[in-house]
Amino acid sequence: MARLLLINGPNLNRLGKREPHIYGSDTLNDLEQQLIAFAAERGATLTCFQSNHEGEIIDEIHAAEGTYDGIILNAGAFTHYSYAIRDAIASVDVPVVEVHISNIHARDPFRHVSVIAPVTIGQIVGLGFAGYRLAILALLERKGGEERWKK
């Protein structure tokens, strides 16, 4: 059984309240419950973690090695400037899929660059909560041995 970790970064605890015209009206708990069920239907377990603190996210990435088969990461604003999170991803042997609810490339110019993308196996943006489900599917396919999914 595949074990996956979902990490949501800063301000994602405000889902449902923060800019609902961009992020929708569902809450973080709604998202997590949907994804736990989605993973379970596919024979996987999903553990959810959220933090507004960079160091806690780094610690969670480090702790994932040897425990999880993949990480789904929405690093929020840290995406654009946290070389520390980028280095944490590069330091572990766990595939990471970067996910963003909104299309970061169609928003403010400072959001167009992801410093973590080069050390992930892929990036999914602008598809709302569906992006997280696609990340789960990608990680499960990768665990199944698809050669094209190399870190």
TrEMBL record:
Homododecamer. Its EC number is 4.2.1.10. Belongs to the type-II 3-dehydroquinase family. GO terms for molecular function: 3-dehydroquinate dehydratase activity. Substrate binds at N74, H80, D87, I101, S102, R111. The record marks R18 as: Transition state stabilizer. Pfam families: DHquinase_II. Catalyzes a trans-dehydration via an enolate intermediate. Pathway: Metabolic intermediate biosynthesis; chorismate biosynthesis; chorismate from D-erythrose 4-phosphate and phosphoenolpyruvate: step 3/7. One of its GO terms (biological process) is aromatic amino acid family biosynthetic process. Keywords: Amino-acid biosynthesis, Aromatic amino acid biosynthesis, Lyase. InterPro entries: DHquinase_II, DHquinase_II_CS, DHquinase_II_sf. The keyword Lyase applies. It is an enzyme of class 4 (lyase). The active site is at Y23 (proton acceptor), H100 (proton donor). This is 3-dehydroquinate dehydratase. CDD domains: DHQase_II. It catalyses: 3-dehydroquinate = 3-dehydroshikimate + H2O.
